[in-house]
């Protein structure tokens, strides 16, 4: 990938607009050998037209064969090396709800879950309880105190919450408690270094007390913690790319990763893509780069609902003309990773990608799908290449060298 030092030297101002439309978990697999993926099954005339006019390929979120989390895969889309800038999910969730993390703060993303009488997880997301129920449970958990640190518990969305410990000497060299599968008991927090042992003990004490608080609740009678981390601080997009960048997303985690890279997070005030496009239209004159996020493709994939994922893709396609009516100079349509309904989880498979601009070199692809994009002019490429390509197509990079 191009280094940030080079990009700082090459970026130039321009009156051009870039949109990156990210359908979370877009990539898929056919349910039967020789069949079609969710994207290939969907009727997408508007994306197909853009594929025909643009240049296509398959983007690799972090590395070949590596299944990415949403944080690393989004960092890659924004041009940040996910191995160099490794960010814990807790930081993203905290920033996503506007929680200001200090240098002594340790953040964890929490999931309410359901366990049976033997303590084995039967539902990792507690039936996707509503946010209102999550807030009620969080209020109960706030009563738990720990010696020597401040404890903050905040609701996020649905079954997710944020736990923050604030105090001197806290370490983030810790393991997660989610075993990532049903039929297993939540794991204890384990220290990965000697100086993290006290922090692990504090967290395990908090979890034990939380288990008592939740024992009589249904279906959310237990919890898991993931992504225990501190905020490392990243170079902002304004500095690296010279862009006034804005994020339009309804889910807190994606708002968090946007804040982490210095984007202005715009208030959507609703849950639909129509709401997001209305915000895009309202702020069109204010920014150079817009990240627009669609979550429900990923949710359908994780639920194993092939047809619902197809329908969501078709819903997004129907709104493409509203986006194009703004006359962007560059439009990228992609996903942060693949979430095939067949697997009910994130996967390592490269993600179909369109890069459309008025000056791109169109390839022979005529429809938007995994098989077609595998023949595209971009080939199979690192997701970190998208930002330099977007800047070039927007006339925002000058020549390198003499």
Please tag this protein with its features.
402 residues, Alpha-Beta Plaits, 2 domains, eight-stranded mixed sheet, 15 helices, 19% strand
Question: How is this structure best described in words?
Answer:
It contains 15 helices and 13 strands. It is of the alpha/beta class and 402 residues long. It has 2 domains: 4-87 and 233-393, 3-Layer(aba) Sandwich (Alkaline Phosphatase, subunit A), CATH 3.40.720; 102-229, Alpha-Beta Plaits. The longest helix has 18 residues, at 197-214. It is globular, with a radius of gyration of 21 Å. The mean pLDDT is 96.
Task: Indicate the topology.
Elements (H helix, E strand, L loop, with lengths): L3 H7 L7 E6 L14 H4 L3 H9 L1 E6 L9 H8 L11 H8 L8 E11 L5 E3 L7 H11 L8 E8 L2 E7 L30 H18 L7 E8 L7 H5 L3 E4 L3 H9 L3 E2 L7 H10 L6 E6 L1 H7 L3 H13 L1 H5 L5 E5 L16 E7 L12 H4 L5 E4 L3 H8 L9
Parallel strand pairs: 1-10, 1-11, 2-13, 8-9, 8-10
Antiparallel strand pairs: 2-12, 3-4, 3-6, 3-7, 5-6, 11-12
Helix pairs in contact: 5-9, 11-12
